[in-house]
Amino acid sequence: MKACNLVIILDDTYDNYGTYEELEIFTEAVQKWSISCLDMLPEYMKPIYQELLDVHKEAEDFLEKTGKTYRSYYTKEMVKEYTRNLLIEAKWANERYIPTVEEHMSVTLVTCAYAMIITKCYVHGDDSVTEDTFKWVSTYPPIVKASCLILRLMDDMATHKEEQERNHVASSVECYMKQYGLSEEQTHELFTKLVEDSWKVINQESLRPTEVPRSLLMPPINLARVCDVLYARGDDYNHAGIEMISHIKSLLVNPLSV
């Protein structure tokens, strides 16, 4: 949960709060991953950076007892990759640059953060999780890439209008419209088809022989399912509707019936 909260905080910092110059400094600090970098950061960024180090140190201390500290290495590398690509997005937003679809996807399939979250799902996994599992995720195999694409497209369809009212990086919707001369409606139709195709990839990858134990396919599958809960009826992530509020109450508030 701490790790997921940090993803949200980092995303908001790069999207809404940091200047480009501040984000360059923060990204450099993440790449160095050292408490000595704390003094180089603006005051409001210091607690974020400190928490980032502390959360991973806590996990590393636990993993050291079981001889699995390699898992911490891969999660750190994913965080580093995530912030590098968030900085690219910030540069695009700062320059009002609309990238090509290919440029956009190469960056935003990383910044959707699903591959990083999937990696974190494996950190405290049992012995079915090996170093090869982490190497597998880092290559964005088809099932992971499909899960990332579902989030990217469904998120952008639901949020792009509101995001473009502020200085936000161009979404995949704007990129497709510009590159292919499509209307917004045509782009949404295309994205719906691409989401359906991505689910076909997930289904195919779930049925064929896999490089990792089948149980380890559940994080990318379940994260793809989350997209329907968050975005099938609009932007329930930022503006929770009645159904989303009901889900939250069922999970966190209402007692289970026995």
From TrEMBL:
Transmembrane feature ranges: none
Keywords: Lyase, Metal-binding
GO biological process, one term: terpenoid biosynthetic process
Cell division recorded as keyword: no
SUPFAM superfamilies recorded: Terpenoid synthases (SSF48576)
GO MF annotation, one: magnesium ion binding
Source domain of life: Eukaryota
Cofactor field: Mg(2+)
Residue ranges occupied by any Terpene synthase metal-binding domain in the UniProt entry: 2-200
UniProt-recorded name of the protein: Terpene synthase metal-binding domain-containing protein
Source organism of the structure: Ambrosia artemisiifolia (Common ragweed)
